[in-house]
Design goal:
The chain is of the alpha+beta class. Helix content is 31%, strand content 26%. It folds into 2 domains: 5-155, Fructose-1,6-Bisphosphatase, Chain A, domain 1 (2-Layer Sandwich); 164-272, 3-Layer(aba) Sandwich (D-Maltodextrin-Binding Protein, domain 2). The relative contact order is 0.14.
Length: 274
């Protein structure tokens, strides 16, 4: 199946509209009973997450009848959806609010994300910032670009390689299994700066725009990483699992490293896996 630029435009319209009418409408206005804990105190779901996902799924069902819809919240209710992702002719992975902890804390750093997946390969992506109103977009083989609210756009390019001591990066170390979880912070001093935004959508946007050099992630939910990994690669970056294999959404995996190029990837990996 070919996912066209027109298809991508429709996907983008749906995500942007969800951000406007479901996410921003509720930002800073949620009552205490509209925010719930899932697996841990930092793992939250809000009424806005659920409303945005319902809207996106309903609109995608109308626009792309028969497509598999894999949303963060509907997978919580039906985990078997993930088993179908690698084989579906067309699937969409949806993160209605990436950075829910920020959103629920009234921190304006969150994103609405979606990706189109054709037989296990990510072919289109959007990471939309509903606060600013712009969208980072990618289409397989056609590059990555930032679409601005005024209709303008500019290409996105990953950072140029520099020496390790000058690199900045984002590391989601807390989602690695032990003992790696405890070990990883020991290596941060090899770089100029290591931090986290609690929103991988914005971290991927930073890397795709050349504003940081590397990203390292443990837990790889497809709604978090299918959009961002395509955005980063189409911006000229290099991404592999820590074992050197390609990332594929829907397959159980841990440890995705994104870097400016192949050589930098090996240098960074050697720091984190001595």
């Amino acid at each position: 199946m070919i996912f066209t630029r027109q298809d991508h435009d429709r996907l983008t319209q749906i995500v942007v509209e969800a951000g406007r009418r479901e996410v921003m409408l509720r930002f800073g206005k949620l009552a205490a009973d509209e925010v719930r804990q899932k697996c841990s105190p930092g793992d939250l779901v809000t009424q806005a997450d659920e409303a945005a996902e319902q809207f996106i799924c309903a609109e995608l069902s109308r626009a792309f009848p028969g497509a598999l819809l894999v949303g963060e919240e509907n997978v919580s209710a039906e985990p078997a959806l993930l088993d179908r992702l690698s084989h579906a002719d067309l699937a969409f992975v949806i993160d209605p609010i990436d950075g829910t902890l920020n959103y629920a804390s009234h921190v304006p750093l969150f994103a609405v994300m979606a990706a189109a997946v054709v037989r296990g390969e990510t072919v289109a992506a959007i990471i939309h910032d509903p606060v600013v109103g712009d969208s980072a977009l990618a289409l397989r083989g056609e590059g990555a670009w930032l679409s601005q609210p005024d209709g303008g756009s500019r290409d996105l390019r990953a950072a140029q390689a520099v020496e390790l001591a000058a690199m900045s990066g984002m590391v989601s170390w807390q989602y690695f299994p032990e003992p790696r979880r405890t070990e990883l912070p020991r290596y941060f001093g090899a770089f100029a700066n290591v931090s986290s935004l609690r929103c991988c959508g914005h971290e991927y946007r930073l890397a795709a725009a050349g504003h940081c050099h590397f990203l390292l992630y443990g837990r790889l939910n497809p709604w978090d990483h299918a959009p961002g990994s395509l955005l980063h690669s189409e911006a000229g970056g290099y991404a592999r699992m820590l074992d050197g294999t390609l990332y594929r959404p829907g397959k159980p995996s841990t440890g995705l490293l994104c870097a400016p190029d192949h050589h930098s990837w090996h240098e960074i990996r050697s720091v984190f896996t001595p």
